[in-house]
């Protein structure tokens, strides 16, 4: 560090520490990094011991808003039940609304848990342990002090009702019974599914064991085209990850000056990425392009991911790849045991929209001009604003808050409706800006440049004098250059700024880390080099609320087992009457309803004081003090699926009225559901449970080859078809792992997929003595074809990882994997010779294995 002291102006949690160590390793090398890590370890132990942090029951604080949210949600569902009984709402709509609403409440309670910890006690042991990344995760904290939420059974199906209690409050009998499903799933997964993940690792090791770095260069002339995107920081980082550690297949020139930026055969480091970022298309070498039949060359593989340097000769990259792909599966399988079968969804709200909650209790009022009354997909009415709409929330005739919504906002309120704090009152496009008012005077639209890091913030805004009608703060003096020491999320009572207003302005700073603010900005003359100016959205409210806040972040993908084909289902009502008639004798009472013959009385309809009808019935006869009724059943059937029925038709029991739509809730997609998909891809399966798999790689390869054969020569068509399938397999496997927040380098998958796409089947032998139907390595056939006039014709074949292991030239390696007796017997009959080139055969015989220091002994 050359005698200079490094300064980092930020909070170091687990993620920041990882980034710091990565940066240090790149800049100062592995030896100095080891010393730093040792010092960090010692520092951590000392302070962990001195602090003496431990969890007690007092540290588990339940957010005060939890009860209120649950009470109002239950109230809402009771009203939904009444609407169903009155025939105003479909049961299907209720089921979907129930799922969605509880997920939203679960997320809201989660946010309240975070806010409660931050505002009440940031030195809370639970808060420190979890949010620093030292131990546990937020799902566990939410279960302890929030609500346990939805659970999944051992098949991964989400159970109908959530557990509303937290572990601190304690579960009732039914909730405890529900939670047993999750516990059982955890134990089953740990016991059985870990074995599946381990078996996948074993197959991968056998498939990749022959992949050893054999040569420095194979002199391959082909390379993979990589498109460089630099639209924002996230895409730039993804591109950087893809190409750092690769070797260029072609020279790279500056498009303007035509000067050479990087040459063919040069490895790409982060410095080179910055130089070539202007070029949109570059060619890099990958394991797919290597021309060696057995093993790989250094330049096609590139850097060793572990060391950040060019891979050494004799490195067993196949086993490294197998371990990297298989290990996360084993770890994630065991992790499901600790979460206790809790379901987390990615569909807790409408995509690209934000839920806006009421900041206070009160009565919300607005005008119904410039808008339309519509219905949601759950059949609930809402007001769609066509122009900017102002909603006033007042309590006891005192205005508590005024919210200004942009156009195209969905308002879930009726005029003069009661609202409670944190009730979802609207949904708006998150690209729109919402403006909040306090006492109809304060407008939160000031933009202040400040740093998201902890440090000094210099306010350079001049506050101009303005009148109340402009909806902005009124100041008598100009204030410039105030300095305040702020921590992210801290509350600062700042009374100096408001001279002519009697209230103190309490404000809270929210940090917004959108990609828009990651771009470099020119620093204005007002800011000196001592500051870190970054533009943010700044919102101030007296009640410490922010209206355009995102509430939902989910970690697992979900899917519907059955899709509802038609959204707006038109329904017809069918009443089935029972013959058993009942007489109701009414003493000294007066029936409020005008009863007549044939009248249908719905469930929960009040007939007279203190008497509510419990069933849907039809009036047969009315006398002076008696009324004869009979039971009725009400069914909703879609018009297209109903049978032809006429009024007063006689129906026998078990008569099929029509075919309805089957609705099933979401299904959890953790690694337990992901592992079979990874296995299907790597085993190149065509069917699953005797059904053809849709879009399976084998079909894609076959169709792609047929299409390309019309345009290109046989060898080019095969290579291009393989390239397409290779990318598809890698993309699909990566998608499954990324959903579990697991990052695997593409290089590892490329090594395994190269083995799967390395062989072809001969369909025309040409001038060679090869047999039609024989399977051979594509590299070997290409070499043979160079010497033949009448070329061999062949088609691509996709081979699963188990078949790769069984097609190994070494019979000892084959026999140690599967079908030992058959392989040994066949090898003995054929008189096979094992030349002991690979790892497994040498390991069995106790020889020095041909990798690492034993590589040159071969």
UniProtKB/TrEMBL annotation:
GO molecular function, one term: DNA-directed RNA polymerase activity
Protein EC: 2.7.7.6
Reaction(s) the record says it catalyses: RNA(n) + a ribonucleoside 5'-triphosphate = RNA(n+1) + diphosphate
Gene3D superfamilies with a match to the protein in the record: 1.10.132.30, 1.10.150.390, 1.10.1790.20, RNA polymerase Rpb1, domain 3
Top-level taxon: Eukaryota
Location of the RNA polymerase Rpb1 domain: 78-154, 170-780
UniProt keyword Chloroplast, yes or no: yes
GO biological process terms, semicolon-separated: DNA-templated transcription
GO cellular component, one term: DNA-directed RNA polymerase complex
Keywords linked to the UniProt accession: Chloroplast, DNA-directed RNA polymerase, Metal-binding, Nucleotidyltransferase, Plastid, Transcription, Transferase
Alphabetized InterPro entries for the sequence: DNA-dir_RpoC_beta_prime (IPR045867), RNA_pol_Rpb1_3_sf (IPR042102), RNA_pol_Rpb1_4 (IPR007083), RNA_pol_Rpb1_5 (IPR007081), Rpb1_funnel_sf (IPR038120)
Purpose of the protein: DNA-dependent RNA polymerase catalyzes the transcription of DNA into RNA using the four ribonucleoside triphosphates as substrates.
Name this protein carries in UniProt: DNA-directed RNA polymerase
Taxonomic placement: Eukaryota, Discoba, Euglenozoa, Euglenida, Spirocuta
């Amino acid at each position: 560090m050359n005698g200079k002291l490094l300064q980092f102006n930020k909070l170091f949690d687990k993620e920041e520490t990882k980034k710091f160590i990565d940066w240090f390793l790149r800049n100062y090398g592995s030896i100095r990094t080891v010393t730093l890590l040792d010092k960090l370890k010692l520092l951590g132990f000392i302070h962990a011991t001195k602090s003496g942090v431990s969890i007690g029951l007092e540290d588990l604080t339940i957010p005060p808003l939890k009860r209120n949210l649950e009470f109002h949600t239950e109230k809402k569902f009771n009203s939904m039940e009444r609407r169903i009984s009155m025939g105003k709402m479909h049961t299907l709509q209720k089921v979907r609304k129930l799922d969605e609403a509880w997920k939203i409440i679960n997320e809201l309670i989660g946010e309240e848990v975070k806010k409660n910890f931050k505002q009440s006690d940031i030195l809370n042991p639970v808060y420190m342990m979890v949010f620093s990344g030292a131990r546990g995760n937020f799902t566990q904290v939410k279960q302890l002090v929030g609500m346990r939420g939805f659970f999944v059974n051992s098949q991964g199906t989400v159970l109908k009702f959530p557990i509303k209690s937290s572990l601190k409050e304690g579960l009732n009998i039914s909730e405890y019974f529900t939670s047993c499903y999750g516990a059982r799933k955890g134990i089953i997964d740990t016991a059985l599914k870990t074995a599946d993940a381990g078996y996948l690792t074993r197959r991968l090791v056998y498939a990749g064991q022959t992949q050893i770095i054999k040569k420095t260069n194979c002199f391959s002339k082909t390379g993979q085209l990589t498109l460089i995107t630099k639209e924002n920081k996230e895409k730039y980082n993804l591109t950087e990850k893809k190409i750092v550690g690769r070797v260029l297949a072609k020279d790279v020139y500056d498009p303007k000056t035509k000067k050479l930026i990087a040459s063919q055969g040069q490895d790409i480091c982060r410095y080179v990425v910055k130089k070539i970022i202007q070029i949109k298309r570059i060619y890099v070498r990958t394991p797919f392009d290597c021309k060696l039949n057995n093993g790989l060359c250094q330049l096609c593989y590139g850097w060793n991911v572990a060391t950040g340097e060019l891979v050494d000769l004799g490195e067993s990259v196949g086993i490294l790849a197998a371990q990297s792909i298989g290990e996360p599966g084993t770890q994630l399988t065991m992790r499901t045991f600790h979460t206790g079968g809790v379901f987390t969804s990615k569909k807790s709200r409408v995509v690209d929209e934000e839920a806006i909650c009421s900041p206070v209790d009160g009565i919300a009022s607005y005008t119904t001009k410039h808008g339309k009354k519509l219905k949601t997909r759950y059949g609930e009415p809402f007001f769609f604003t066509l122009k900017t709409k102002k909603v006033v929330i007042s309590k006891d005739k005192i205005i508590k808050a005024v919210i200004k919504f942009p156009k195209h906002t969905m308002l879930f309120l009726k005029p003069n409706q009661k609202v409670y704090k944190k009730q979802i009152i609207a949904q708006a496009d998150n690209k729109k800006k919402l403006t909040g008012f306090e006492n109809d005077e304060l407008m939160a639209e000031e933009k202040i440049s400040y740093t998201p890091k902890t440090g000094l913030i210099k306010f350079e805004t001049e506050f101009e004098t303005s009148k109340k009608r402009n909806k902005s703060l009124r100041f008598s003096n100009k204030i410039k250059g105030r300095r305040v020491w702020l921590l992210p999320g801290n509350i600062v009572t700042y009374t100096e700024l408001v001279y002519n207003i009697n209230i103190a302005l309490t404000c809270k700073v929210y940090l917004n880390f959108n990609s828009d603010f990651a771009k470099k900005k020119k620093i204005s003359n007002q800011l000196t080099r001592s500051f870190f100016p970054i533009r943010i959205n700044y919102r101030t409210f007296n009640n410490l609320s922010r209206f355009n806040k995102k509430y939902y972040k989910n970690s697992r993908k979900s899917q519907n087992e059955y899709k509802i084909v038609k959204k707006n289902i038109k329904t017809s009502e069918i009443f089935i009457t029972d013959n058993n008639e009942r007489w109701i004798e009414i003493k000294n009472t007066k029936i409020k309803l005008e009863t007549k013959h044939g009248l249908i009385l719905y469930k929960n309809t009040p007939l007279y004081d203190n008497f509510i009808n419990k069933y849907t019935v039809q009036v047969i006869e009315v006398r002076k003090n008696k009324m004869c009724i009979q039971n009725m059943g009400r069914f909703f059937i879609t018009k297209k699926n109903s049978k032809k029925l006429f009024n007063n038709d006689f129906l026998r029991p078990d008569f099929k009225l029509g075919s309805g739509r089957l609705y099933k809730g979401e299904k959890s997609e953790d690694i337990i559901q992901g592992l079979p998909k990874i296995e299907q891809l790597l085993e190149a399966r065509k069917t699953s449970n005797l059904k053809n798999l849709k879009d399976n790689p084998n079909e894609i390869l076959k169709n792609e080859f047929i299409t390309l054969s019309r345009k290109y020569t046989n060898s080019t068509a095969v290579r291009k078809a393989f390239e397409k399938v290779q990318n598809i397999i890698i993309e699909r496997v990566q998608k499954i792992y990324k959903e579990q927040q697991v990052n695997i380098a593409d290089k590892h998958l490329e090594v395994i997929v190269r083995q799967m796409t390395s062989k072809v089947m001969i369909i025309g032998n040409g001038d060679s003595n090869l047999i039609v139907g024989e399977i051979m390595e594509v590299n070997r056939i290409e070499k043979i074809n160079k010497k033949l006039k009448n070329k061999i014709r062949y088609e691509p074949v996709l081979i699963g990882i188990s078949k790769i292991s069984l097609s190994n030239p070494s019979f000892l390696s084959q026999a140690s994997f599967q079908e030992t007796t058959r392989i040994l017997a066949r090898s003995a009959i054929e008189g096979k010779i094992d030349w002991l080139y690979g790892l497994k055969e040498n390991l069995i015989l106790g020889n020095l294995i041909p990798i690492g220091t034993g590589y040159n002994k071969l």
